[in-house]
Design goal:
Low-confidence stretches: none
Number of strands: 2
Distance between the termini: 37 Å
Helix content: 55-70%
Number of helices: 9
Structural class: mainly alpha
Order of helices and strands: HHHEEHHHHHH
CATH architecture: Orthogonal Bundle
Largest sheet: 2 strands, antiparallel
Strand order of the largest sheet: 1-2
């Protein structure tokens, strides 16, 4: 049985929006490079490299369903739902492992309050990374922004971007820096 590759999945959903496809691929490859560096630097963690590779490429697959015109997204969902939207797509393809990465990678994890504070309905479920692979991808993702795809943030810049979400997020990120950096 042929397993559909991350690029085939991206092509399936992004064939009609080349600027967004190019941005998604660029961002996903940045995250992939950083996440694979963690895998290579920490063999003691015994990470599932194939899952990290596929999850890095697909963690943001749901962005096209969201409303973020600055980055070529012309869907209807609030951007905070992009992980949940991507998870739904991955479950339709039978990829529960990737679905969990999609819905758990945003920030250092989302809470009901993350949604309620924006006047949004919380989707429910666990929306924070649980496995080491989920944490590595979320960690790697924090260094890159689709709004500024040309650069990699430093640890300090990443901390600054997380401070607005509260102490829990910065504490979690610092734990990841200690574990993966």
């Amino acid at each position: 049985m042929h397993t559909i590759s991350p690029i085939e999945i991206i092509d399936k959903y992004y064939s009609d929006n080349e600027p967004l496809r190019a941005l998604l691929l660029h961002h996903s490859r940045q995250v992939l490079s950083k996440a694979i560096h963690v895998c290579d630097s920490h063999p003691e963690l015994k990470l599932d490299r194939k899952l990290v590779e596929e999850g890095s490429m697909l963690h943001d697959v749901g962005i096209f369903l969201c409303d973020a015109p600055r980055i070529h997204c012309h869907g209807t969902y609030h951007y905070l739902y992009h992980g949940v939207a991507g998870a739904r797509l991955m479950r339709e393809l039978g990829r529960e492992d990737i679905a969990r990465i999609c819905e758990r990678h945003t920030g250092t994890g989302l809470t009901d309050e993350s949604f309620l504070s924006r006047g949004l309905v919380p989707p429910g479920g666990i929306l924070a990374p649980q496995t080491l692979e989920e944490k590595v991808i979320s960690y790697a993702d924090k260094f890159f922004s689709k709004s500024h795809p040309e650069r990699e943030r430093t640890v300090e810049e990443t901390l600054q971007s997380l401070r607005k979400f509260g102490e829990k997020d910065t504490k979690t990120f610092l734990e990841w820096v200690e574990m993966f950096g």
